[in-house]
Specification:
- The chain has about 150 residues and is mainly alpha-helical.
- The chain is built from four helices and four strands.
- The protein has a two-stranded antiparallel sheet with strand order 1-2.
- A hairpin with a 2-residue loop joins strand 3 and strand 4.
- The longest helix is centred in the first third of the chain and has 61 residues.
- It is rod-shaped and about 145 Å long.
């Protein structure tokens, strides 16, 4: 190929045209590689941001949901419990949770005040002594598991 300069043809040295063409091709390939790398980096950045947002969402959901699930599991132990307020039955365990806790605390205090001796044995003996009929005593002993 020959270039025209000032309306004159200038001969291009042999082989230079091929080298220039190869150089242009190489520069275009390098530019395309840089574009591809930038696109890959942008895609990776968007993916990382999406994953970070998803992880944050899961963490927040976990922090909000897990305590509620635990509370429901704990309250399930008292399913069927209710309280009466002003003659109205309230069986929403979430509403009466404090009442249940208070009742349990009172029961524990009452248990703590029971004499440390063998209360059950003393009660069984008292029942047997209160029964005058020998047949009834035998029935009570069988019920209590004594011979």
């Amino acid at each position: 190929m020959k270039e025209i300069q000032n309306n004159q043809e200038i001969p291009i040295p042999e082989g230079l045209e091929q080298r220039l063409s190869a150089l242009v091709d190489r520069l275009e390939a390098e530019e395309q590689g840089r574009k591809n790398e930038r696109m890959k980096n942008e895609k990776n950045k968007r993916l990382f941001i999406s994953l970070a947002i998803a992880a944050a969402f899961v963490a927040v959901a976990f922090l909000l949901i897990v305590p509620q699930v635990r509370e429901r599991q704990q309250l399930a132990l008292y399913e069927g419990s209710y309280t009466l307020i002003d003659g109205q039955r309230i069986d929403d365990l979430g509403q009466i949770k404090a009442d249940i806790s208070e009742a349990l605390a009172m029961a524990q205090m009452a248990e703590a005040n029971v004499p440390a001796g063998d209360f059950a044995s003393q009660t069984e003996r008292a029942i047997l002594q209160a029964t005058d009929d020998p047949e009834m005593q035998a029935v009570v002993q069988r019920i209590l598991g004594e011979n």
